[in-house]
């Protein structure tokens, strides 16, 4: 399993043609207490750079942008009832989507953990 990071603070854990997508711990820390998440539905298709959801915290609302082209195959429904899980386990149980990759070569444009850590300083 390989993990990739985007400049918009999403992570992708890729196994085969399915990627699990979430937000990084850094993003969760910056947002503060998450109170609501707006998610796409299974079957929704999107292109790299599209807005694919919104996370609302006590501080601000922040869009989730697609780091790659794909289709939502599963939505983490638990986040609707417990959006605060994004603060507790952003890079674990509180994943947002499982997506089917349309173009795996787009992963080459994302960062590894070392590059992401350099970016956030």
UniProtKB/TrEMBL annotation:
Pfam families documented for this protein: GCV_H
Superkingdom in the source lineage: Bacteria
Binding note for cofactor: Binds 1 lipoyl cofactor covalently.
Location of N6-lipoyllysine modifications: 59
Cofactor(s) annotated in UniProt: (R)-lipoate
InterPro entries according to UniProt: 2-oxoA_DH_lipoyl-BS, Biotin_lipoyl, GCV_H, GCV_H/Fam206, GCV_H_sub, Single_hybrid_motif
GO biological process, alphabetically ordered: glycine decarboxylation via glycine cleavage system; protein lipoylation
Domain Lipoyl-binding: 18-100
Keyword tags: Lipoyl
A cellular component term, taken from the record's GO annotations: cytoplasm
Family: Belongs to the GcvH family.
Binding partners and assembly: The glycine cleavage system is composed of four proteins: P, T, L and H.
NCBIfam families for the chain: gcvH (TIGR00527), PRK01202.1 (NF002270)
Listed HAMAP family: GcvH
Function: The glycine cleavage system catalyzes the degradation of glycine. The H protein shuttles the methylamine group of glycine from the P protein to the T protein.
Protein name: Glycine cleavage system H protein
Lineage of the species this protein comes from: Bacteria, Pseudomonadati, Pseudomonadota, Alphaproteobacteria, Rhodobacterales
Gene: gcvH
């Amino acid at each position: 399993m390989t993990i990739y990071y985007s400049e918009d603070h999403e992570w992708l854990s890729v196994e085969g043609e399915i990627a699990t997508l979430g937000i990084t711990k850094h993003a969760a820390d910056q947002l503060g207490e998450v109170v609501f998440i707006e998610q796409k539905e299974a079957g929704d298709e999107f292109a790299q750079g599209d807005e694919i959801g919104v996370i609302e915290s006590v501080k601000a609302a922040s869009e989730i942008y697609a780091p790659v082209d794909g289709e939502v195959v599963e939505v983490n429904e638990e986040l609707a009832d417990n959006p605060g899980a994004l603060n507790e386990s952003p890079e674990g149980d509180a994943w947002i989507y499982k997506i089917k990759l349309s173009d795996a070569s787009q992963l080459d444009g994302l960062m590894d953990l070392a590059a992401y850590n350099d970016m956030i300083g």
